[in-house]
From TrEMBL:
Superkingdom: Bacteria
Protein source organism: Nibribacter ruber
Protein name (Swiss-Prot/TrEMBL): DUF5655 domain-containing protein
UniProt xrefs under Pfam families: DUF5655 (PF18899)
Taxonomy of the source species: Bacteria, Pseudomonadati, Bacteroidota, Cytophagia, Cytophagales
Residues covered by the DUF5655 domain: 25-133
């Protein structure tokens, strides 16, 4: 692991490209409704049942990382959160994703909109684990 001397973020590769920001998780949550903050915190709690990770606030999103960034919270709405799970193929035979889009040649972003704690059901948790496990494989292949 490499730690940026400017912003103290940890990365898998030395001198990995990133934006050094002084934005915090609390900056993203400031002014958001109790519902939204509660959904965000519940989402993190559920992901912690899958495995350990670090929270990386960025310019426009909050990413979760183990070896690399495996998930991001793209939007903190008035009464929902939008989460992006990069997966290695299209999973469109489900109702849990409201949007699916290709990013480059490798990952396919799958977006989940969470309005209620119950939206984090077994199926969504399954895809969350897939994104987390794919990150673990990336870390092994680069070690």
């Amino acid at each position: 692991m490499w730690t940026c001397p400017t912003c103290a973020q940890e990365f898998l590769r030395t001198n990995q490209t990133h934006s050094c920001l002084d934005k915090t998780e609390e900056d993203f949550l400031r002014g958001k409704s109790e519902v939204t903050v509660g959904l965000y915190r519940h989402f993190l709690e559920q992901y912690r049942t899958i495995g350990e990770f670090r929270v990386h606030p960025a310019k426009t999103m909050i990413s979760l990382a183990k070896n690399t960034r495996f998930c991001s919270v793209h939007q903190l709405g008035r009464n929902f959160i939008d989460v992006c799970l990069p997966l290695n193929k299209v999973y469109d035979n489900t109702l849990c994703f409201h949007k699916i889009g290709h990013v480059g040649d490798q990952d396919i972003n799958h977006y989940v909109r969470i309005y209620d704690k119950e939206d984090l059901n077994e199926e969504v948790l399954h895809y969350m684990k897939m994104a987390y496990d794919a990150d673990a494989l990336k870390g092994k292949s680069r070690s």
